Task: structure prediction
Amino acid sequence: MKKLIYVCAIALSAIIVGCNPLEDIHEDVNKNSSLEISGDVVYTLEDDDYEDLDLNFGNFSSNDDAKDLLPDFLSDKYPALGKGSSALITYKLYNRVDTYEADVYELSDEEHNAITGKTFGNFDRSNHIYDYLEATYPDAEDGDFVSLRYRFYNGSESTLTDGFAFENGEWIKFTGFTEDQYQAMGEGFPNFSSEDEANVKIPIALVDVYKFDPKSAGDIVLAMYELYQGGGVTRSFTAAYVYNGSEFLPYENELDVTLQFGHDGTTWVPDNTIKYTLEASDYPLIVEALSDKYPAATGSMDNYGNFERRPGNAAEWTPAMIAEAMDVVLSKLNPDAEEGQKYVVTYDIYNGSSGTEDIAVIKTDGVWVLQ
Result:
């Protein structure tokens, strides 16, 4: 593996010398076809890239499509990169979220009482609304949606408006905004007067709605709201929003997905490898865990803070021993790593002079082992 370092110098004597590292790399590759260059790139696909990939809608329809199409794309874009290289690619994935709409139906006292067996004209248990749905819509089909305004007693009576969609054989609840929440958004009635108004106010309101249930960047949430249609008719709509880490934005049925690829010496392949360099605090951890099993090797590490790699030395760390050491470190660093997760770990060595080496490990049956 040949490592290339390029320096562009500017002479103060008014002679300016420029250099193009990538062009130099290509020239070097052409002169020596056996040259391998390893590098790491991070890239987000742009509109022109989707056109080059013949993706007319500007996104991938599945992650499998991305895994099939991106290797050739990477080979064309980074022809100088070879074995050991990695690419972290972010792309848009089509991910439709179904939304619904329906006129609001307000339950009568009699309809409440038919479910509860009481005479108060409200529900007082969370299952009552589902009992009503099953009794009223016994032949519901996937995709059916109803918006219900009903009264619920929990110490005091509140009027709620929630949506319910029948999906995969069961009713899924879409919690609507309460009268108090509409009032907090500046509304005199429990609805919005226009869709534009809803689009402006709902993302702001969602920050407060989820203040005790924090969302992570990329999380999608559904909101249900009401628009007054006139003539005494109010209609409910569901809408999807995505959290970007600081605010909620309208969800456009696309997800930003990041996929890692590695170069195997021939082509780019999807790869979940994480690169990690041991920190100073990792070496004492190894010493403590393996001192009884490898007293000479860990004694040397304790003294010098590296792996002794001189063949035949009493304190030599063999590849199998180093893999055990990485199991100690990675089990603490990433205890929840899934089976099949890979790491390439860089560590300090002494083999007559100081340097570094890399080791590739994979989690198998709960243990980090050599790849």
